[in-house]
Design a protein that fits this description.
single chain; alpha+beta; Aldehyde Oxidoreductase, domain 4; 7-stranded mixed beta sheet; 5-stranded mixed beta sheet; 26 strands; 23% strand
């Protein structure tokens, strides 16, 4: 039997995923909606395979009491793995119902069909449907994965653009965890350590009480609890906590160049042979520490009652967070229920887990009282994990035609995966906090973290890389959209343009000469045509056109991006084109939205974003200190979604990030006639490159 997708392998019981009652279909999934539209796409898959309308589906997602454990919603795997699992579950359930109906009707299953849950024979209703047969069909069994899903030609719902199910409430400003109100709920705010490892020396408990609030404390964990947010703010300001010591940082630590001077765990992969002699080209590229910059701050609600701790949060993974919370609180995971609630978006490990643990700790210290924790904007910038700074250095040996025959890479990176037990902020302040284990981050090429996409997708005979993993970053780092792929694709695709220049070749023709995958070639050709590449013009005119390609993780979604810019002492985006290959696109409009969102976020990072660091860590604590791309700076974006309906669905949430960053750098370098290798591409960096 073919191996099952991981989500189904980990959750084999069909009744863990599906239930039928009262004319409704209960669908339970572990992948959660964090702004990427997967609740709609997964619903399309279920409705398609079961032959029911979308209106019949009741949805449960991310609930440790009710839904399967699919780990974290991350790495563009919700459709690739979660969707593939749900498709097999629904196909098998449909087959079981048809087999039971065939037995009752003394018919062959091939004679039967289903329309909105009703069993048909030769197009006529039989009087049977999912709900009348539900008591006869046993779903408390393991899936076999042996029932093939529908062929593409039979699809009615999959492959059509469907409005997102989660948007109406969100557009009306409702439906977020921030809006939750439980009877007797109180509001809380943690008095956060200004520096990692700082010790709480004193605070003004009397002033907190005079403000109408109360104090809860366990070791260096201290929080103010109040009946309203207004009282809470006043009491938190009145607390005036005094802290001693802690780990100081310095401004120069904000640069990737500083990171490259630090002790590192060095891991090597790839060709063991030494690079051959020959003409060489080498260059280094970098990106700084960046923030998730979620437009809304993190929030969570927790309630300890009857020996059960309930937590509502916008975490990416309810089961991983439950394990983390159980380890931190020293309790049985079965005594904790974690339910996903909509938040301000995520795309990585932002403050959601930390706010949820804050609420959980306070709720256990005040059993019977629901606790709501809402971070401030300053908290979100200062204390949520950041995307790590990185430096990627490349060296190629070229043949007589200027083609790379050997490529070596050195990656210097902080930790990209920092979710384990005891790593959250509050856990470090509790009494008897356990020592942190060493970073558990793979340096393998797939799926990779800091090493993601460092192996070129081009036909280069020999490649190798060394990953210098630095544990001692000045600020806490963890996953942010794309992980190391953003920097590595930025470096590799900038390098490809440089190699094309050395070879005296057009950058598009040069890439095509190194690409054998026909799907990749079609994307590059289509993007170049969309951008009118033949009219590109010479370098150094102040107007530039750049292009970059990557296949995310070398196994997932394909994207090629072209960007036109105007550049002098600053870079202005004028047009962006993208061709992408998602395989079978479940919801084409949803895929386009993901591609556009990745383009916009990557453009913002490439042109503007950088966290500043001072003695207390992150100094960028407001939108004034951390500018992002404005609506007025976003140019027209044209998307061409390539039609590959017979191919497996590919994750698209992160695939445009790296190509966009590199395409902007290539366009700016073309416009200016000089190479920009370090993000963000600010006025200061342009002037430094010109000098």
């Amino acid at each position: 039997m073919t191996a099952l997708p991981k989500s189904l392998e980990d959750n084999r019981r069909l009744d863990r995923w599906l239930g039928f009652a009262a004319g409704r279909v209960q669908v339970s999934v572990g992948k959660v909606e964090i702004g990427q539209g997967i609740a709609t796409a997964l619903a399309q898959i279920a409705a398609e395979e079961l032959d029911v309308s979308l209106a019949r589906l009741d949805w449960r997602a991310g609930d440790t009491q009710l839904a399967p454990d699919e780990g974290s919603t991350s790495s563009s795997l919700s459709i690739e793995v979660g969707g593939a699992s749900l498709r097999l579950v629904c196909a098998e359930a449909r087959a079981l119902f048809l087999a039971e109906a065939a037995r009752l009707l003394n018919a062959s299953p091939d004679e039967l069909d289903i329309a909105d849950g009703a069993i048909l024979r030769d197009g006529a209703e039989t009087g049977h449907d999912y709900w009348s047969l539900a008591a006869r069909v046993e779903l408390a069994r393991d899936a076999t994965g042996a029932v093939p899903p529908k062929p593409r030609a039979a699809h009615r719902i999959v492959g059509t653009s469907t409005p997102r199910r989660d948007l109406p409430e969100k557009l009306a400003g409702r439906g977020f965890v921030h809006d939750m109100v439980l009877p007797g709920m109180r509001h809380a705010r943690v008095l956060r350590q200004p520096r990692p490892g700082a010790t709480l020396v004193s605070l003004d408990a009397a002033a907190i009480a005079r403000a109408g609030a109360s104090l809860v404390r366990s070791g260096d964990f201290a929080a103010v609890v109040a009946p309203t947010e207004a009282v809470l703010r006043s009491a938190a300001e009145a607390a005036r906590p005094q802290w001693r010591d802690g780990d100081a940082a310095a401004p120069e630590m904000a640069e990737a160049a500083w990171l490259a001077t630090q002790p590192a765990d060095i891991r090597t992969r790839g060709s063991e042979a030494s690079p051959p002699a020959g003409r060489r080209h080498a260059a280094s590229y970098s990106r700084p520490y960046v923030s998730h910059a979620s437009l809304g701050p993190s929030c969570a609600v927790a309630h300890e009652h009857d020996g059960i701790l309930e937590i509502w949060s916008h975490v990416q993974g309810v089961y991983p967070f439950r394990a983390n919370a159980a380890g931190t609180l020293g309790r049985d995971p079965d005594s904790i229920i974690v339910r996903h609630a909509h938040g301000p978006g995520c795309y990585g490990h932002n403050g959601a887990d930390d706010a949820a643990l804050d609420a959980a700790i306070i709720a256990t210290l005040l059993p019977g009282t629901p606790i709501r924790v809402l971070w401030s904007r300053a908290d979100e910038f200062a204390f949520a994990p950041a995307g790590t700074a990185m430096q990627t250095s490349l060296s190629a040996v070229l043949d007589a035609d200027g083609r790379p025959i050997d490529l070596s890479a050195t990656i210097v990176s902080g930790v990209h995966v920092n979710r384990g037990a005891g790593r959250l902020l509050a856990a470090r302040t509790l009494p008897n906090a356990q020592p942190l284990p060493p970073p558990a981050e793979s340096s393998d090429p797939y799926p990779g973290a800091g090493t993601r996409n460092i192996v070129p997708y081009y036909d280069i005979p020999a490649t190798r890389y060394a990953h210098h993993l630095v544990a001692g970053t000045p600020i806490r780092t963890s996953a942010l959209r794309g992980l190391g792929a953003v920097e590595n694709v930025f470096a590799l695709e900038s390098f490809m343009d440089e190699l094309a220049g050395l070879a005296g070749r057009d950058p598009v023709a040069y890439r095509l000469g190194l690409l054998s995958d026909p799907r990749a070639r079609r994307l590059v050709e289509r993007t170049a045509a969309m951008a009118n590449w033949p009219a590109r013009g010479p370098a150094g005119t102040g107007v530039g056109l750049g292009l970059a390609f990557a296949r995310y993780k070398n196994r997932s979604g394909y994207a090629c991006v072209a960007v036109r810019v105007e550049a002098d002492t600053e870079i202005r985006l004028r047009h962006i084109w993208c061709a992408a290959d998602a395989g079978l696109a479940i919801n084409p409009d949803g895929v386009r939205a993901q591609l556009e969102g990745g383009i916009i976020q990557a453009a913002s990072m490439t042109l503007k974003e950088q966290l500043r660091i001072d003695a207390d860590g992150i100094a960028s604590r407001s939108w004034a200190d951390y500018p992002i791309l404005r609506f007025s700076e976003i140019p027209p974006i044209d998307i061409a979604l390539m039609d590959e309906p017979d191919e497996p669905s590919l994750g698209m949430g992160e695939c445009t990030m790296g190509p966009t960053a590199a395409a902007i750098a290539n366009a700016a370098s073309h416009a200016l006639g000089l190479r920009l290798r370090h993000m963000p591409l600010t006025r200061e960096r342009i002037l430094a490159a010109a000098a």
